[in-house]
DNA sequence: AAGTGGTCTAGACCACATG
DNA sequence: ATGTGGTCTAGACCACTTT
């Protein structure tokens, strides 16, 4: 024959690059190790920097690489499993929940949330801001919308805002009997605020977990939590979750 | 004073573009409507095509747009909620599950899955391929790994492969008593095979749902399901899920 | 054949972190 | 000051769908 009649559908360069890099990561690199810079890598592979970046972007999306402006590109550790929507339903802020309250303000929620909250469109609700840290790294940022009707006894609390008030709202929530909770996960991108909180650039991919807490047949609270998609694997249902390993990938010295 | 001393941190053009486009989508466009082509849009906004594309990519990632090569860019409908990990644990292939079996082969699973499956590294297992369609659109593709030990009575089945054998394997699974299941969700990108199955380009963002089915204290099956991240919102726990609406967005005529 | 989005290039400049 | 990744440009060509 002579010519190998394959390549009738030549795969894009960045795709091939990604494959090569993935194999290199699996076999020749250690977690935490820094890669050559983009200009050198591009030259080494004989492609334009933009093409190389296309491959690196995908690898970062898959949690294999971590890139930081001004610093460099490093090999990322395996994603950490973070548990969401535990089997035994529980209010946020209860014992053994991984969050810590940051702030609380009284605000009118975005129009997009009016329906699931069952509040009037212009009705102000308590907005509790919480953050979640795992292994010393911020992994999620949450906005918890609590209609005033869900925490009727919120009096005698002098703090009009701040972490103290946030904890007070969460404490009052526990008094309600939780019927059930509804969860949803979808892909999103970090807004300016979440990006700062998660130590990422705006637009970074995030997993958005929306939880509706139902009590007495009504939505007593609505949580919108954004998790770093590059570093997190969300586990739910029963304990733990499944560990997936890439390759040899030793620990960097 | 004079100059508005803001813009000390000027936001990137593509970010601003994304904001403008989002507002336009919310107020001036209908679901299914086609946008002007990229060259025209770029010219209209006075930016390079690559910059415009950066904005469009993010909007597609967020499920607001749908782009198809050779066709154009259209306004995407709201994401559809697809239920995963139903509350009442059940084996795959049971009554009222949304999947349909496609194929089944006997293969050695990728090394990365050996540990969660608890099989020997070189042990072949049944690999059932299933696909899931919702509203006439493919939304997910699954590989279900079933160790031979989990389906001991798989004899008298003459079909060595194909959909018939796949259904047989699933049927045999029901005989085991399911202890519990462990779920995890993470972000990934479609490989060549999944991309074809999901009607997307390779590298498209997907939500990977890994489920480990536990019976008699051992992993009796392992499912790796990849969902289209652009069109799907995964719901779990109790029924339904939370509906989020963007804006007016009328239905296209 | 025409029109669309997808890939690729070779540059330039900017924002950020570090020495 | 230097080096990194992030943004942006103005072009070119390719793969695909539709007419």
Automatic annotation (TrEMBL), chains A, B:
<dbReference type="InterPro" id="IPR028978">
    <property type="entry name" value="Chorismate_lyase_/UTRA_dom_sf"/>
</dbReference>
<dbReference type="InterPro" id="IPR050679">
    <property type="entry name" value="Bact_HTH_transcr_reg"/>
</dbReference>
<feature type="domain" description="HTH gntR-type">
    <location>
        <begin position="11"/>
        <end position="78"/>
    </location>
</feature>
<dbReference type="InterPro" id="IPR036388">
    <property type="entry name" value="WH-like_DNA-bd_sf"/>
</dbReference>
<dbReference type="InterPro" id="IPR000524">
    <property type="entry name" value="Tscrpt_reg_HTH_GntR"/>
</dbReference>
<protein>
    <submittedName>
        <fullName>GntR family transcriptional regulator</fullName>
    </submittedName>
</protein>
<keyword id="KW-0805">Transcription regulation</keyword>
<dbReference type="InterPro" id="IPR011663">
    <property type="entry name" value="UTRA"/>
</dbReference>
<keyword id="KW-0238">DNA-binding</keyword>
<dbReference type="Pfam" id="PF07702">
    <property type="entry name" value="UTRA"/>
</dbReference>
<dbReference type="Pfam" id="PF00392">
    <property type="entry name" value="GntR"/>
</dbReference>
<dbReference type="InterPro" id="IPR036390">
    <property type="entry name" value="WH_DNA-bd_sf"/>
</dbReference>
<keyword id="KW-0804">Transcription</keyword>
């Amino acid at each position: 024959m002579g010519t190998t009649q394959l390549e009738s559908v030549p795969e894009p360069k960045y795709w091939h690059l990604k494959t090569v890099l993935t194999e290199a990561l699996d076999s020749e690199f250690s977690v935490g190790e820094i890669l050559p810079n983009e200009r050198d890598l591009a030259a080494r592979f004989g492609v334009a920097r933009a093409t190389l970046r296309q491959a690196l972007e995908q690898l970062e999306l898959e949690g294999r690489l971590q890139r930081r402006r001004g610093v460099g590109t490093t090999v990322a550790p395996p994603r950490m499993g973070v548990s969401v929507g535990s089997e035994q339903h529980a209010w946020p802020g209860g014992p053994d929940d991984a969050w810590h309250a940051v702030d609380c303000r009284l605000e009118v929620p975005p129009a997009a949330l009016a329906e699931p909250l069952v509040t009037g469109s212009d009705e102000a609700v308590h907005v509790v801001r919480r953050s979640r840290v795992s292994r010393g790294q911020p992994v999620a940022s949450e906005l918890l919308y609590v209609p005033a009707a869900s925490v009727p006894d919120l009096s005698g609390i002098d703090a009009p805002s701040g972490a103290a008030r946030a904890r007070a709202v969460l404490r009052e929530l526990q008094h309600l009997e939780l019927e059930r909770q509804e969860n949803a996960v979808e892909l999103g991108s970090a807004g300016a605020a979440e990006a700062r909180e998660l130590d990422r650039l705006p637009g970074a991919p995030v997993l958005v977990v929306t939880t509706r807490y139902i009590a007495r047949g009504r939505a007593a609270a609505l949580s919108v939590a954004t998790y770093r998609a590059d570093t997190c694997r969300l586990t739910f249902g029963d304990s733990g979750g499944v560990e997936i390993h890439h390759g040899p990938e030793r620990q960097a010295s």
